[in-house]
Write a structure and sequence with these properties.
The protein is an alpha/beta fold and 268 residues long. It folds into two domains: 95 residues, Translation factors (Elongation Factor Tu (Ef-tu), domain 3), CATH 2.40.30; 151 residues, Nucleotide-binding domain of ferredoxin-NADP reductase (FNR) module (Rossmann fold), CATH 3.40.50. 22% of the residues lie in helices and 33% in strands. The protein is built from seven helices and 16 strands.
């Protein structure tokens, strides 16, 4: 069950001018978090920003021995910029954990899964990689970005999964294969790779292309969808997505982790 509590800023780690990790004290949200959950964070007081912002819970870890939640953030507006400026010790209101997490309870030791990330879509896959590694389940990472600087937290992924299982694609070829991450995944399938399930997070064009690939290969998937959210629990209806059954579903309640077969990608 989600709780609303005040969590302290423990550390902010900047990767570049656009990307950073925000570490907050875990509170009671940390022990209840599963891979794929998200939280709503208030980025300050007053009218700018007025609403909380939704962020995937990237990891449940420790900072100087203190249980912590990690959020990997890309600066895109007032709220994400404000969160980067809070001093250590600042209390922030946080509501979480929210949403439907990635389905992993049915996985067996013999299963082999894939993680597909596009840009800042790496966020919910960090805790997933940690959890799969702890359970001894083999996972391959396919991670794409515009350039090498967009490929964040490589050390963590390679530590959890093994460097030989981590493959990268960049638009400019500065890291890994030149091209799209879906091209990288297509190449793996053509080479005979098969997966029990494919977990993914990234931009809609990546989702759309990956959904077609999974359908053609008859592979099961779970996509951590991103959408504009004002509440996080299905009241504001700001995060609806067109579903395959003709209705509109709320990403915050029915997701964010959903099978791609449930989404009508022609209307998304």
């Amino acid at each position: 069950m989600a709780v609303n509590e005040s969590l302290r800023v423990l550390r902010t780690t900047h990767y570049d001018q656009q990307h950073y990790s925000l570490f907050l004290s875990a509170g009671s949200i940390g022990p209840a978090t599963e891979p794929g959950h998200f939280a709503m964070i208030q980025a300050g007081e007053g009218l700018r920003p007025y609403l909380r912002r939704a962020f995937s819970i990237a990891d449940v870890t420790k900072v100087a021995g203190v249980p912590a939640l990690e959020f990997v953030v890309k600066v895109v507006g007032v709220g994400t910029a404000a969160l980067a400026r809070f001093a250590e010790g600042t209390p922030l209101p946080v509501l979480g954990p929210l949403g439907v997490p990635f389905p992993i309870d049915d996985l067996q030791l013999a299963d082999h899964v894939a993680l597909v990330a596009g840009g800042i879509g790496l966020a919910p896959l960090v805790l997933l990689a940690r959890t799969l590694a702890a359970r001894g389940i083999a996972a391959d990472l396919f991670y794409g970005g515009r350039n090498e600087h967009d490929i964040l937290k490589r050390a963590e992924f390679e530590r959890f999964l093994g460097s030989h299982r981590c493959r990268y694609a960049t638009d400019d070829g500065s890291l890994g294969r030149r091209g799209l991450v879906t091209d990288l995944f297509t190449h793996a399938l053509a080479g005979g790779a098969r997966y029990r399930r494919v977990y993914a997070c990234g931009p809609v064009p990546m989702f759309r292309a990956l959904a077609r690939l999974l359908a053609d290969a008859e592979l099961e998937g779970s996509f951590a969808m991103e959408s504009e959210m004002a509440c996080g629990f299905g009241v504001c209806l700001g995060c609806v997505a067109p579903m395959a059954d003709g209705r509109f579903g709320t990403i915050c309640k029915e997701g964010p982790c959903v099978p791609p077969t449930l989404i009508d990608w022609t209307r998304f």
